Structure to design on (897 residues):
């Protein structure tokens, strides 16, 4: 095999191949930090008004042991049974997630904002037998729980592990002011009680027994994703996948991640694979202090976290960085101790990256990955050549290629489907052999993303296969059009989609969120005309208050398209700007 | 018999509009509110405000320009010509003081409800509170001269400054506490906000019934001044901000910030400075009425603001 061009761009402190390690499973990996950093703070949850609670590494370790015992001894779960976990970022999350893994069970991360239909699908599809849910949303279980295999429900509160009076005030506010504590009508155990029961039943030999048959190839998590086909399905991520990806990510950052010295702000939800691997597993292993923010929207919710803690690392999506850059309190006094930021989940706009560096004076690098790859595949090396607009180069022990329809490598600079191979690639989709065989061919993950590679081995995502707009036979990539429009002053956010058209097959529509003073349709169109071929220029510009977004802030083009099609069929005026 | 007379003489010197228990409560209120205000602040907030001082400058001008002027104009056009009460100058003094004190925390709450710029509102409140210890005596000096208040009513400017300064101290202490413990700071901030709100039912439940007779015998010009001050202040400041093309969000903020003054502070200041003056009841009349009516006015204004202009601004979904 030829040597890969990208290896020349690895900084000197980054190994070409992942060093061999002896971690059989995730609890093995977690144990290192739990032991080395036992007395230091592992997690701090910071509410928008600054109220906070903290846990040390030792507390997280012991409490997650107790929860593992609860699951096995009290709830009666067996090795390999699935446990659905549905909560925003809070102190309970690491305890629950680590507890599930220590029990030898499989973690099923579930979005707390899901509707009943979505919850039912995910609980049934995964065959979960237990659920840990935040009390704020537990009322949604009524009417669906009996349709699933869930035998035990554990409820956590957002203020769990906060100092007593503070927790009390938060509870009172939730109950009487914001009215976000509904009555829970299904049978459930409180997290506190579950931990007590677990503690009583626990014993060291039992704990090690839970993990006897849990090796690198045992499934650790079912991480649900739409994938390229849109049907929500569980990617089977093994202990080996997640351990390796955590170590790959850390080794790629070289000396930018100092063991025992970092403070990372976790604004992205931990139930999302990006924050799960990078923030939770990665920074825990590093002995970092994790500042958990339950909800980053509105962005002013992050203000107290930035003021009260010396944040050194931030991971986020384009939307988050862009939102922060629109906040005066952030741009006027950017975090002093910040060392670097990592962007993923969606394309990082070059204009945002540039401004971020100007404002914070620190590097921001874009990475790329999928739920199916645990997720990190590529990264711009922090200590090496960074190319804006690219997703960087593959992390150690990872191969990435761009191929044509027949699976042959395309030439340098030509677009092709990005495929990847490495120790972080999932085993397949849970109970969906057909979808698995489409996604995995000879060990190569078919990402469905169109990319090109340059002579240095840096990859650039041109677009997702399904988002590509075909205008009279010409390919229009929404990312490119969005990037252009985002450069118009006064444009805050933009989403571009393709709408069926009798003449051209498809035409381009742009949904724009503006700030004051707002640009006119003319401003935007003329800017596009100046910089792009005519067929790429949006034919219709729609100003909206906000764009539909996924929990991590990724703009949901599919929802824009569905909405546009629905209104087009009802009005059918065929008007274009 | 003799003892009774002494008692009566002593009672005459004690204000009845605000009795001793109420005074103590009031001081506690103001301290807690100021403490909470400070607990929500960091030095960074000041740095931020100073870097873009426009909002603050406009706010400062409206706060210490429009409000006292409004009070003065209402006094000379409505209160003095149409009142027949003997101690009307005392009432006028109370109205002037009410117009010259800084903004209160209630304005932050209404700014929040009317989707204004909360950060600007809070910094404006703090800014005017800090300036108050110079500006309130200065403004009072000017207008009391215009009114030609006789010597017995002349304001003790030094004492006034000292009292206001004493009330600013808790702001600094609150900041310090927040720095030492974010949790304690956040709790104090919350309690301060709650007390700012409790002040209103406190007025309605305790003060109104006890002073029912007084309220009934108070002449209409006094009501016009007490109600008009807030209403005119809010309106003038809003159109002024619009005139210089401020963002609607900031215009709403400046308007509420200007019109809503710190009622508890005005009352506390009067009690502290004029406790020995036999006319203290009359001085307290407008501040008490103002504090009562400003809630109704602000609620109405908030409803109007919410209806206007909101479509142009972004809604943000919130998980918690």
């Amino acid at each position: 095999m030829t040597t890969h061009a990208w290896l020349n761009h690895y900084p000197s402190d980054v190994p070409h191949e992942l060093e061999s390690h002896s971690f059989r499973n995730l609890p093995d990996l977690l144990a290192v930090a739990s032991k080395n950093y036992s007395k230091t703070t592992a997690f701090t949850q910071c509410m928008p008004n600054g109220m906070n609670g903290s846990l040390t590494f030792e507390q997280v370790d012991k409490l997650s042991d107790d929860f593992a015992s609860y699951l096995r001894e009290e709830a009666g779960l067996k090795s390999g049974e699935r446990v659905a976990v549905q909560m925003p970022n809070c102190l309970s999350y690491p305890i629950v997630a680590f507890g599930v893994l220590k029990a030898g069970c499989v973690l099923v991360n579930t979005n707390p904002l899901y509707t009943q239909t979505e919850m039912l699908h995910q609980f049934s599809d995964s065959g979960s037998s237990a659920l840990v849910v935040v009390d704020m949303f537990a009322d949604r279980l009524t009417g669906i729980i009996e349709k699933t295999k869930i035998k035990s429900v554990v409820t956590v509160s957002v203020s769990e592990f906060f100092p007593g009076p503070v927790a009390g005030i938060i509870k009172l506010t939730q109950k009487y002011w914001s009215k976000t504590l509904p009555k829970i009508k299904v049978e459930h155990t409180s997290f506190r009680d579950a931990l007590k029961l677990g503690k009583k039943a626990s014993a060291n030999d039992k704990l090690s027994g839970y993990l006897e048959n849990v090796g690198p190839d045992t499934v650790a998590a079912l991480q649900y994703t739409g994938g390229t086909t849109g049907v929500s399905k569980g990617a089977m991520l093994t202990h080996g996948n997640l351990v390796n990806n955590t170590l790959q990510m850390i080794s790629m950052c070289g000396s930018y991640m100092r063991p025992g010295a970092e403070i990372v702000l976790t604004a992205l939800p931990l139930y999302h694979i990006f924050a799960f691997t990078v923030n939770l597993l990665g920074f825990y292993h590093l002995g970092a202090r994790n500042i958990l923010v339950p909800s980053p929207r509105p962005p002013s919710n992050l203000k107290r976290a930035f003021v009260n803690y010396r944040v050194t690392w931030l991971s986020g999506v384009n939307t988050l960085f862009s939102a922060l850059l629109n906040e005066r309190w952030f741009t006027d006094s950017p975090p002093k101790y910040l060392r670097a930021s990592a962007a993923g989940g969606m394309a990082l706009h070059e204009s945002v990256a540039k401004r971020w560096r100007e404002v914070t004076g620190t590097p921001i690098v874009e990475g790329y990955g999928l739920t199916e790859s645990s997720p990190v595949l590529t990264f711009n090396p922090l200590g090496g050549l960074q190319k804006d607009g690219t997703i960087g180069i593959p992390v150690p022990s990872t191969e990435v290629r761009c191929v044509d329809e027949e699976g042959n490598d395309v030439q340098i600079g030509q677009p092709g489907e990005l495929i990847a191979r490495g120790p972080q690639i999932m085993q397949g989709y849970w109970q969906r052999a057909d979808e698995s065989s489409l996604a995995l061919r000879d060990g190569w993950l078919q990402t469905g993303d169109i990319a090109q590679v340059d002579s240095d081995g840096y990859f650039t995502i041109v677009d997702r296969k399904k988002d590509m707009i075909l205008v009279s036979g010409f390919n229009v990539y929404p990312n490119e059009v969005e990037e252009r429009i985002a450069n118009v002053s006064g444009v805050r956010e933009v989403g571009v989609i393709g709408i069926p058209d009798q003449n051209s097959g498809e035409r381009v529509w742009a949904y724009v969120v503006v700030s004051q003073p707002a640009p006119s349709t003319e401003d935007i169109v003329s800017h596009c005309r100046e910089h792009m071929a005519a067929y790429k220029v949006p034919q219709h510009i729609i100003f909206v208050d906000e764009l539909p977004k996924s929990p991590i802030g990724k703009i949901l083009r599919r929802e824009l398209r569905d909405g546009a099609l629905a209104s087009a069929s009802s009005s059918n005026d065929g008007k274009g700007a | 018999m003799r003892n009774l007379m002494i008692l009566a003489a002593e009672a005459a010197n004690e204000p009845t509009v605000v009795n001793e228990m109420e005074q103590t409560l009031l001081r506690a209120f103001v301290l807690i509110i100021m403490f909470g205000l400070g607990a929500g602040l960091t030095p960074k907030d000041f740095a931020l405000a100073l870097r873009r001082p426009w909002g603050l400058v406009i706010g400062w001008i409206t706060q210490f320009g429009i409000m006292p002027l409004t009070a003065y104009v209402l006094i000379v056009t409505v209160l003095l010509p149409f009142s027949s009460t003997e101690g009307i100058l005392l009432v006028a003094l109370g109205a002037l003081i009410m117009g010259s004190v800084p903004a209160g925390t209630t304005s932050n709450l209404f700014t929040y409800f009317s989707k204004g710029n909360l950060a600007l509102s809070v910094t404006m409140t703090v800014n005017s509170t800090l300036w108050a210890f110079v500006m309130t005596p200065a403004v009072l000096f000017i207008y009391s001269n215009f009114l030609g208040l006789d010597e017995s009513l002349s304001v003790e400017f030094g004492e006034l400054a000292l009292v206001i300064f004493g009330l600013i101290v808790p702001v600094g202490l609150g900041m310090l506490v927040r720095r030492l413990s974010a949790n304690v700071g956040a709790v104090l901030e919350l309690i301060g906000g709650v007390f700012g709100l409790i002040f209103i039912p406190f007025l309605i439940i305790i003060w109104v019934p006890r002073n029912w007779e007084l309220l009934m015998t108070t002449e209409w010009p006094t009501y016009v001044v007490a109600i008009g001050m807030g209403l005119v202040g809010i309106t003038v400041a809003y159109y002024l901000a619009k005139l210089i093309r401020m963002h609607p969000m900031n215009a709403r903020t400046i308007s509420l910030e200007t019109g809503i003054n710190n009622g508890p502070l005005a009352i506390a200041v009067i009690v502290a400075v004029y406790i020995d003056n036999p006319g203290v009841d009359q001085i307290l009349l407008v501040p008490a009425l103002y504090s009562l009516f400003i809630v109704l006015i602000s609620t109405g204004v908030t409803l109007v603001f919410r209806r206007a202009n909101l479509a142009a601004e972004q809604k943000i979904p919130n998980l918690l």
About this structure: The CA atoms of residues 244 and 251 of chain B lie 10 Å apart. Chain B touches chain A at residues 42, 44-45, 47-48, 51-52, 119, 178, 182-183, 185-187, 189-190, 247, 311-320 (CB under 8 Å). Confidence is low (pLDDT under 50) at residues 1-13, 310-320 of chain B. The radius of gyration of chain B is 20 Å.
